[in-house]
Design brief:
The complex is a heterodimer.
Chain A: H1 3-12, H2 19-39, H3 71-76
Chain B: E1 4-7, E2 14-17, H1 44-51, E3 56-60, H2 89-95, E4 101-106, H3 110-118, E5 121-124, E6 144-149, H4 152-162, E7 190-194, H5 195-200, H6 203-218, E8 222-226, H7 231-250, H8 268-279, H9 282-294, H10 300-324, E9 327-330, H11 346-363, E10 367-370, E11 373-376, H12 382-397
Parallel strand pairs in B: 2-3, 2-4, 7-8, 7-9
Antiparallel strand pairs in B: 1-3, 4-6, 5-6, 5-10, 9-11, 10-11
Helix pairs in contact in B: 2-3, 4-12, 7-9, 7-10, 7-11
The chains are: A mainly alpha, B alpha/beta.
């Protein structure tokens, strides 16, 4: 991991680290790289991936609305909102 | 001692950790980014306990998104024991008798470690038996709501209340309810102790395990040492999956629809970046960054895909173990206490502890902490764990 690559990840995830935090994160990546290298010693050549730890197939429920929230209630939790919308800075420049 | 981030009802006997939604009460999951978030509905587990007549005393502090060792990354307050070492607020509240029981989300084992640090019980049930509807999601494929209490009977009582199918959670298993008992006879039970975990524990924990093994033998259980050669790989695989899932789940916090918004921004990009920079703690950010790296084109097959295959290996290994044994006994922590540490060491410290807690998260099997040690069983083997715990607690009381 390079500082440039780390900064690209910060940008991708829409936050910034301080220089000290970047240094700490580089140490974390170096540590995890050692762990990931050791992981390669475990033979998984004929092993299928396992996404869910318990068996799950075709998990559906009836297509019925059970819980309906008003626009007013949904907007109430926003940091900034008008009567009917979230307020954000102008998107189109 | 500050246990609660939000007090609800002073007559309540149950605490709910601040990762579980309670309608109309601010829920922050230990993070600044959720400041001001007031949910419109309660988690299914909370609805069930309220429906059964329990009252909630308050919402206990948790580490940010449950990613740390024992609650130390909470933005809103860290719980310390009288000697200054760390434990989780829920376990300390139970240990102090402030509440009888607590609901906690086990993401990376923090509630299990808290129970051991505070000398109480915690049971993370089989994945899918308790609904995850209405919890703040972090690592969806392995996190589970569990019960913390002073003894096995109290754990069983509340677990029976909150377990059962919930159509609102796609990972909820079909059984409408579960019958648990803590009264199975433990004489004749076959219990495995994992050599790799035993060897990795500090002397004080080895002594604790030795004493527990001696008690089990006195109760006519059969105890055998076994080996899990891939134990370290299981821990690394869970760390990789945990970070990847955290990366996805934390992407929803943007300072627009709910939670914290920075006061300083000129445009939408600055709003997102400044809100997330100021709102997320370092451990959360480090997990997000590592998670996005293991999901990237260069690392996906080597890290994330590899971990999904190791999850299957772990699951098959556990099936093999539980075909021969009724339970596994192992440490839940490397040491008997946790001190504050440099955040640069956060993954290294977490990885040391994940060694003992990753398998139940990775494979969905239940895990119970009692008497400062950890017990695992096959999926749906909660009654075996509760019965061992109750029998050993009975012997310790004599």
């Amino acid at each position: 991991m390079t500082v440039e690559a780390l900064k690209a990840l910060e940008s991708l995830n829409e936050f910034r680290l301080t220089e000290t935090e970047e240094q700490k994160t580089m140490e974390i990546f170096a540590f995890m790289e050692q762990q990931a290298a050791a992981l390669q010693n475990t033979d998984t050549e004929h092993v299928e991936v396992m996404v869910h730890c318990m068996p799950m197939t075709n998990v559906f429920r009836e297509d019925v609305r059970e819980q309906v929230f008003s626009r007013e209630a949904l907007l109430a939790g926003a940091p900034e909102h008008s009567e009917d919308s979230w307020i954000v800075p102008r998107l189109v420049k | 001692m500050e246990y609660f981030v939000t007090e609800i009802d002073r007559d309540g006997t149950v605490a709910v950790d601040d990762t579980i939604l309670i309608k109309d009460y601010e829920t922050k999951a230990g993070s600044h980014i959720l400041d001001g978030f007031v949910p419109l509905f309660s988690g299914d587990a909370v609805e069930r306990l309220l429906g059964a007549g329990y009252a909630v005393r308050g919402k206990t502090h948790t580490g940010e998104f449950g990613l740390d060792i024992a609650g130390e990354t909470s933005y809103h307050g860290v719980c310390r024991k009288a000697d200054g070492t760390l434990s989780t607020a829920a376990a300390e509240a139970v240990a102090a008798g402030v509440v009888r029981q607590a609901l906690c989300v086990d993401v990376n084992g923090a509630p299990r470690r808290g129970a051991a640090l505070s000398g109480v019980d915690f049971l993370k049930p089989t994945y899918g038996t308790v609904s995850r509807y209405g919890i703040i999601p972090t690592a969806c494929s392995g996190e589970q709501v569990g019960v913390c209490a002073g003894d096995a009977e109290s754990v069983k009582e509340l677990l029976a209340v909150i377990a059962g199918h919930d159509g609102k959670d796609g990972t909820s298993l079909p059984a409408a309810s579960y019958d648990y008992t803590a009264d199975k006879t433990i004489a004749g039970l076959k219990i495995a102790v994992v050599q790799e975990y035993y060897d990795a524990a500090a002397d004080e924990i080895k002594a604790r395990l030795d004493a527990y093994i001696a008690s089990l033998k006195e109760a006519d259980a059969e105890v055998t040492m076994i080996s899990l050669p891939d134990a370290k790989a299981y821990a690394t695989a869970w760390q990789i999956m945990l970070s990847a899932e955290t990366c996805n789940n934390i992407s929803r916090y943007d300072g627009v629809k709910f939670g914290y918004r920075t006061p300083t921004y000129k445009d939408i990009d600055e709003l997102y970046v400044n809100s997330r920079t100021e709102g997320l703690g370092f451990t959360a950010k480090a997990n997000v960054l590592y998670g996005s790296d293991v999901l990237s084109k260069n690392q996906y097959l080597r890290c994330y895909d590899k971990s999904l295959r190791i999850r299957r290996l772990a699951s098959e290994k556990m099936k093999e173990v539980f075909a021969a044994y009724d339970a596994v006994l192992c440490p839940v922590m490397r040491t008997a206490s946790v001190e504050a540490y440099d955040t640069a060491d956060t993954f290294e410290r977490t990885q040391q502890e994940l060694l003992f807690t990753a398998v139940p998260s990775l494979t969905g099997i239940p895990a119970m902490v009692t008497g400062g040690v950890q017990l695992w069983s096959a999926a749906f083997g909660e009654s075996t764990l509760l019965s061992i715990a109750k029998a050993m607690e009975g012997r310790a009381d004599k």
